[in-house]
Design goal:
6 strands; three-stranded antiparallel β-sheet; 11 helices; mainly alpha; 9% strand; 56% helix
Amino acid sequence: MKKILGLVSLFALTIMFVQCTGNSKRVNTVAMESHKTTHIHYDSIISMERLKEIGIDRNTLLRHIELQENAWNGGDFRDDQSIPQYMPTETDFQLTIPLVKYYLSTHGYKQPSTELFQERIKFVFGYQLKMDKTKGYEGIGTDGDFDFTLPYYAIYKNRFITYNWLLRDLLSVEGDKIKLKSQVFQQIKALNNFIFYNDVNAFKLLENLQSQGDDDGLGTFYNGENILEDLFASYNYYKKSHAKSMVFSQV
């Protein structure tokens, strides 16, 4: 009888363990799914109210998105000259900085030290930063005047480099929210990791990343492969055989 009771007790404990384990798995599964949902939301969606917190005026952003629709009108290579071409200004560029900063800060970007930041830009681009704190950023290879066609800009405080991106390349407006085009931001992060840390995984990512967006006839999206082509074709640091061999030997 005691043996039977012992078996019954063991059986009951086994059922309780299985139930607890099952519940634990369900809790973990729910938690994981919740994390995924939260991460996806956090990764790509910003409410209009949140914009102000990261340093962007909603009305200014929407106005410049609209203005940039005419960025490809007119110009020397367009048949239709009836609509004046909009030339992006420094304000257009300034609107992109908080977006890049937000993405990098929430996706594990490790800021280089100030010394490494300046050193790598000098080595890679052959340019000594002036570190003019009145603006907080500087065009790499410029005499100080703003030029939207200049490829690289160094952001001092947050120690990253970025491009002059049209807003449509970075985001889309969906009702009362904006949706970041995540692959473009992954590309910017990979660019910085490659420049400052010779990160081979970042190199591989740039090789394979294609910017999000449909071909709407308004120019070609600048992808990771284009970035690498420019780096290895335009800057002596990457033209040198030892730099190339260092990168490709690890790929």
